[in-house]
Amino acid sequence: MDVTVEIRRASARFTERASGRATQHSFSFGNHHDPERLRFGPMVCHDDHLLTAGEGFDTHRHSGVAIVSWVVSGGLAHTGVGDPLVVAPGQVAVLQTGDGVDHPAVEHSEVAAEPRTRFVQVWLATDEPPAPSYDVSTPVLLPGALTEVAAPLPGARFSVARLGIGDTVELPAAGRVHAYVATGALTRSSLAEPLVAGDAFEMVDHPAVSVTAAVPTDLLVWAFGTPSPVE
């Protein structure tokens, strides 16, 4: 069993700037290509977007992915699949784009409804995507604990931990775990020096591990599959 832990610092991510928008890409995207950063399991996109009011992404197409958005601040206006609505902070939106074969490619738009709208968005690639749909939910986060907020594909679980100063939470054991510090900071641990907003753990076949918040912190955690058996 090849157990690995990589610390991905915010400073190592590619930043794309456009009018009214700044995006930090964790993986190759658009004109930015890094052959060593193509995906993490089914995760092919992990973007942190900051938008000014009225800016964002006009109508565009997708297929073959599940798209999960967590709004950190402001408000994100969505049109396309389902009724037009504004996704608020603390809400999670799941867009199933279909396969583009049995279902036409999904068209949608995402535009900031308020100044300084920030959201973290993940794309998961799948060979068997569900039919197109769009769902927004408001999970009840248990203070100091990891709360599952979405399971957009089989074997893919998205959880959020809202931590106070000194709160400790256990990252799950899974085939792959991606833990992203959306806000705040974690204390120094056996795995790394302190992680701050924009930093992430990427773990493969790693046992469950505990992390502690140094300040009020929101931690976004993806878990994929189960650990490989010990040979």
Automatic annotation (TrEMBL):
Q: Name one Pfam family in it.
A: Pirin
Tell me the ranges covered by the Pirin N-terminal domain, including all copies: 18-124
Instruction: Give the family from UniProt.
Output: Belongs to the pirin family.
Q: Which PANTHER family match?
A: QUERCETIN 2,3-DIOXYGENASE (PTHR43212)
The name of this protein is: Pirin N-terminal domain-containing protein
Query: Which source organism?
Result: Nocardioides lianchengensis
